[in-house]
Write a structure and sequence with these properties.
single chain, about 210 residues, alpha+beta, Pnp Oxidase, Chain A, nine-stranded antiparallel β-sheet, 5 helices, 9 strands, globular, pyridoxamine phosphate oxidase activity, FMN, Pyridoxamine_oxidase_dimer_C, FMN binding
């Protein structure tokens, strides 16, 4: 087995700093500011979603943030997928945004709830035709015998639904993470990073600095 050694792979973080006075009192507004700052980055809305099963065994994957409302951060997926099945038994999750060129990351933790069927219908109908057809064809996270078999399933869906409207699969739904904790991280020189954490306090949020 080939050895992989990155013990000497490193770089300095010198792009910026983060002070408590830089932050909005509302972490969702601060999230919006940093998303705006990252708007020209590839896949700026990509976030790592970490879930755990009933035995607390974690798994993680990238999903795309689609919107933020007053209650939390929202995305769409299939509830027959691995993440969907894990959220059924353990409805808590963590999200991670990381923008390497900006030397920034945001961690968000909280409980996950389902969006309404009407919200899922509205967003599903707004997707490109090909994405809708693929969502109908795929039993997400389930085994398939070959790429050819998958493409045959898609061809059958394309023949059945050559144009909108396409009914949304019942298992294709929206999720919302209701935040209980935010951490805003700005890389600093010599690994003395800035870490500012929001936790609930009354009707608002308390902000504390953590050691790096």
């Amino acid at each position: 087995m080939a050895q992989i050694d990155h013990r000497q792979t490193r770089r300095s973080y010198t792009r910026g700093a983060l002070d408590r006075s830089d932050l909005s009192p509302d972490p969702l507004l601060q999230l919006g500011r940093w998303l705006d700052d990252a708007a020209d980055q590839p896949d700026a809305t990509a976030m790592i979603l970490a879930t755990a099963d009933a035995q607390a065994r974690p798994s993680a994957r990238a999903v795309l943030l689609k919107h933020v409302d007053a209650k939390g951060l929202c995305w769409y997926s299939n509830d027959i997928s691995q993440k969907g099945e894990e959220l059924k038994v353990n409805p808590y999750a963590s999200l991670l945004f990381f923008w390497a060129p900006l030397e920034r990351q945001i961690r968000v933790q909280g409980q996950v709830e389902k969006l309404s069927a009407a919200e899922a219908d509205e967003y599903f109908a707004s997707r490109p035709l090909g994405s809708q057809q693929a969502a109908v064809a795929s039993l997400q996270s389930h085994p398939v015998e070959s790429r050819e078999a998958l493409e045959q399933r898609l061809a059958e869906v394309e023949a059945r639904y050559p144009a909108p409207p396409i009914p949304r699969p019942e298992s294709w739904i929206g999720y919302r993470l209701v935040p209980e904790r935010f951490e805003f991280w700005q890389g600093r020189e010599n690994r003395l990073h800035d870490r500012l954490v929001y936790t609930p306090l009354g009707d608002g949020w308390e902000i504390q600095r953590l050691m790096p």
